[in-house]
Amino acid sequence: MAKKITLEPIESQASIKTNDHLLAVLLQEKLDVQWKCGGRGRCATCHIFIQSGEESLSPKSKREVQTLELISNSQKNSRLACQARVLGEGVVVELPVGMYLSEIDNLDTLIGKKIQEHILHPLNGTVLVQEGMMITRSMVNQLKEALVQIDRVLGII
């Protein structure tokens, strides 16, 4: 049976099948959520906050707890959408502010532009580039280097 989920701050409601991961509803709603580790709970790219309804989700696994401990802006109500399964009604999800560093290919297009929202590190959620900053070629090179290191850690390359 489908459960209703509320997404904040976009004030949207969505349905999700019982026992599906919260990531499924975020992707279904075409939100800019990545899952760089492939849904294994090893990165911060699907980090969310549960505003209410924590009891309607599966318990945190040991892996999820370990990953959340590494995320810089993790709070008591933090979850990884790829790990949290919906078991009941009343879940309200808050999406963190910022976008995660993702693709090397599109970084060059940012040179000379002001960033509209923070660019966050995919493993720990730290701010790599602050909102409002102008992106320079040296920043792009640093971001590319960070992506290569992240891919090594996650076993992608």
Automatic annotation (TrEMBL):
The keyword Iron-sulfur applies. InterPro entries: 2Fe-2S_ferredoxin-like_sf, 2Fe-2S_ferredoxin-type, Adrenodoxin-like, Beta-grasp_dom_sf. Transmembrane segments: none annotated. Its cofactor is [2Fe-2S] cluster. Residues 3-99 form the 2Fe-2S ferredoxin-type domain. CDD domains: fer2. One of its GO terms (biological process) is P450-containing electron transport chain. The keyword Amino-acid biosynthesis does not apply. Belongs to the adrenodoxin/putidaredoxin family. This is Fe-S cluster-binding protein, possible ferredoxin.
